[in-house]
Please model this.
Amino acid sequence: MFAALAQKSLRGESLTRAESFSVLRCPDEDVLSLVQAAHLVRRKHFGKKVKINFLVNIQSGVCPEDCRYCSQSKESKAPVDKYRLMSPDQVEALADAAVANKASRVCLVASMRGPSEGDLKAVEAAVRRVKEKYPHLQVCASLGLLDEGDPERLKASGVDTYNHNLNTSESHYGKICTTHTYADRVGTLERIKAGGLLTCSGVLLGMGETEEDIVDVVFSLRKMKVDAIPVNFLIPVQGTALSDRNEMTPFRCLKILCLFRFLNPSSELRIAGGRELHLRSLQPLGLFIANSIFIGDYLTTGGQEPAADIRMIRDAGFEILGENVPPPEPPLADEVRILSRRGN
Ligand code: SF4
Model:
């Protein structure tokens, strides 16, 4: 049955809602068949390539919005760093780190409702600096809600992609945020498209949403023909309103990723925040569905060591986008220590 869904997806046809629920409700013993079917779609559009993205929190902990999941919201008690927009020198240094970690895109994220005139000028200056040094490094900006004309300005400075996640369904949105609406987010996405930027918009799951909500939002993203879809799984940070949520399992994450792949076959599908926490030892299976990951730390929480991510990609038979295929790597230092303790 999942092979038939893959064939529909390969032909560019939509799944029905009933078929979408069948993916989310796949029996655990059938998950490998489901992953195999989703992999056919991933392989057609992206081959063996994995895109690496590097997150930079260019303004932290000072957001006036009340998103309940977010450690940088005005309502959050989480002890996160608080600072205003980084200087071009600071952003350039972090772009150096992105390139050193084999990233083909650097994602500049600022905690704010939307950029002021001064914010836009600061971001434009930083982006110009990054693009002068690394013309081939893609730059994604994520600055919240945009007004008319903002996307065109950002594009002129060198921004390639703008990130603005829908996060959840329209009907669930009011339960996770009250200071802006789902319609506000859709409006910004429409302005991004009209302004000629590539769109990056995804979800944050594990916030009490139903399967109906998941199907609603994946269909919305399909309808909007979003270029890149980050799928985040909630990292419940102490001090946020959703700190007691822990709804994800590795198999559930895989089923969700398969649904997003079937319905958005040619979109860059990124396993984003929460990958390590919720997929755990099944992270490599996620690469057979998604073609993109973040490397390094997330905005306010730590990620897996970059060397471990790169090793995982290569061990699973994939290649890093933009990099020539390297020779096999020696074991990581930790593995050597474990082997020597065992007397091998
Ligand atoms: S708008 Fe962004 S930074 Fe601000 S509270 Fe919401 S998720 Fe956090």
In short: The chain has a mean pLDDT of 94. The chain has one domain: 2-320.
